[in-house]
Amino acid sequence: MNPLLSPFSIRHNWTFCPADQTDREPGNAPIRYSREAEALKAIGQIGMIGSVQIGRLFGFQRRHVRRMLYDKKLVQHTLVKNKNPIPVFTLGSRGAKLLNFPEPNVRTWTTERILKSLVFFQFCCALNDKQKAFQIHTAPQPFTGKVTIGQDDRSVLILREPMEGLDDALRQTAAPIIVIAESLEQVQPLSHLLTNAKLLLDEDLKGDYRFYRWYNGEWIK
User: Fold this and answer.
1) How confident is the model at residue 173 (pLDDT cuts 50, 70, 90)?
2) Rounded CA gap, 80 and 17, in Å?
3) In Å, how far from its chain's centre is CA 118?
4) How far is it, in rounded angstroms, from Cα 219 to Cα 217?
5) Angle, to 10 degrees, between the axis of helix 51-58 and the axis of helix 111-130?
6) Which residues face 172 on adjacent strands?
7) 82-117 per-position pLDDT tens digit
């Protein structure tokens, strides 16, 4: 496997092993922790979060996550990358009931759908390190989610393969956009529709990022 691939590249060998949810009774557990309702809402809106991300973004320790799993606020699944298992979480029956959200039907989710959720939360982790105060919201397809910073809303477009139909969707979108791609080559075919967008690559999410912007026919930082 190419060592230069992003950890979130769709070109890794991915296998998703959803949890067996035979006991779906939601229970009556209350909200217990600071930021728990915020975390559950964000996960419900976006779809799926990784075990490192939930700690980094919301400050949960393992004991907090274990309790949320016990309370059925979260469900733990396994995402396997090149034979390496990664714990991932979706909204559980109690979490869905508390927020009046539908329970996610993860067995129908594609690898692309799962990776986009994880990349979105990786971006939120990087944004949290840099910005602190922001909100997470849902966004219509083809966007994975939206972030609000002060009065500024940005829909987040995450590019994995394939990209069919994106041209028409972007032509009909007036919202400010943040694009996250694996490489500059991947975003190039859409650049003419993203001239007002801000762009990040997966590798930028490791630290204190700077956005690319479209200028004189190329993406520059």
Assistant:
1) confident
2) 8
3) 4
4) 7
5) 30
6) none
7) 999 999 999 999 999 999 999 999 999 999 999 999
